[in-house]
Amino acid sequence: MNRLFHVPLSPFSRKVRLVLAEKKIEVELVEERYWEQDSDFLRRNPAGKVPVLKMDGRLMSESQAICEYIEETCPTPALMPVTPAERCEVRRLVFWFDDKFHHEVTSKLLYERVNKKVMGQGYPDSRNVKSGATRIKYHLDYMGWLLDQRRWLAGDKMSLADFAAAAHLSCLDYISDVDWNRNANVKDWYAKIKSRPAFRGLLADQIPGFPPPPHYADLDF
Ligand SMILES: N[C@@H](CCC(=O)N[C@@H](CS)C(=O)NCC(=O)O)C(=O)O
Known about the structure:
This protein is of the alpha+beta class. 53% of the residues lie in helices and 7% in strands.
C-alpha cells in the first residue's frame, strides 16, 4: 500500500494528495508531527519535512520531485504539457507558488495563525499577518491577469501549476484568509478545481481546535 506522511494543512502535502487523487492512486495518509523530529521520520527524510511518499518500495521527499515521479510513472491523466516551453511555464508557476507565494503569504498567515498554536510556539506576530494579508492581494491579481489570457494558470490545460496554487489557497481558505470577491477569474478557476473529485479529501479535512468555516467545503461558495 502506498503511504503519504503528511500534515493536513501543509500546502506541499496537499499538492501531492491532489496529484495522487487526480490519477486515482490509492494512498494511506499518515499524519506526521514533523516538528517533533521523531527519529523514524528523520530516517525517512533527513530534511525533516513533509510530505514523504512511500510508493513502489521507495521513500520519496520534496513535493515537486514526488509529483514529477508520479507524472512520469502514471502519465494519465496528464498534468504536464507536451512541449518544453509549456513544461517550463508549468514549473515556473509551481515554483511561484511553492517559493514566492509560500514565503510572502502562506508562511505569514497559515503558519502564524495555525502552526504556531499547534506547535506551542506562542501567538501570531501581527506584523507577519498584516504583511501576508497585503501580499495575497497582489498574488490574486496576478492570477486573475494570467486567467484573463488562459483557461488554466499555465495554459489551456489543467496542470501541476493549478494544483500547486490550489494547494496553497485551500489551506488559506480553511482559515478564511482568501477574499474570493477580489477577482472573478480566480473565483471561477477555484470553483472549477474545487469541484473535481480529487479535491474531496481536502474538503473533508478537520483540524482539531480549528474548525473550517462553512464555505470551505461548499462548492457554491
Ligand atoms: N520544498 C519542500 C518544502 C516542504 C516543507 O517545507 N514542508 C513543511 C510543512 S508545510 C515542513 O515540513 N517544514 C518543516 C521544516 O521546515 O523543518 C517540498 O516541496 O516538499
